[in-house]
Amino acid sequence: MTKGWAIESTCKGTDHGDDIVAIRGSNELRIEAKGEGSSKEHTPRYGFAFTRNQVKVHVASAFLRAAMMKQNNHCLVGIALPENSDHKEMIDRIREALNKLEIEIFWVSESLKVRTDRSEQDEHRNSDKPGF
Q1: Is there a contact between 58 and 107 (Cβ–Cβ < 8 Å)?
Q2: Distance (Å, whole) CA 108 – CA 95
Q3: Which comes out higher in pLDDT, residue 26 or 119?
Q4: Which fold has domain 6-122?
Q5: What would the pLDDT profile of 64-97 be if each residue is shown by its tens digit?
Q6: DSSP-based three-state secondary structure for 82
Q7: What sections of 1-115 are H helices per DSSP?
Q8: 3-state secondary structure 18-34
């Protein structure tokens, strides 16, 4: 992971637990990750992108999980999502709540490049929070 973060643990879609746990110094970051489509080979939509309604359900599920991680742990919390228009639209609908809870969004491009909304802002100003 970049910017000094080291991956401590990961979970696959069927495993229980935090999807990604990373450490940098005394800071711990827990991330709930969602993909762009079904990862289950036995489902009819395997290999296809989620519909808008499925995106809505997955974003809601990720938001709940991230809020629970924030409440139960004294750590930084984020949600990793595919960088596409449906996911961006759903996140925009809950942006104020995400900001109040200090839940960071990690956007993952098709080329697997990761950025945060804050990463671009932090390049132009100093932040009192640990950079992602």
Answers
A1: no
A2: 18
A3: 26
A4: Rossmann fold (3.40.50)
A5: 999 999 988 779 999 999 999 999 999 999 999 9
A6: strand
A7: 52-72, 85-93, 95-101
A8: CCEEEEECCEEEEEEEC
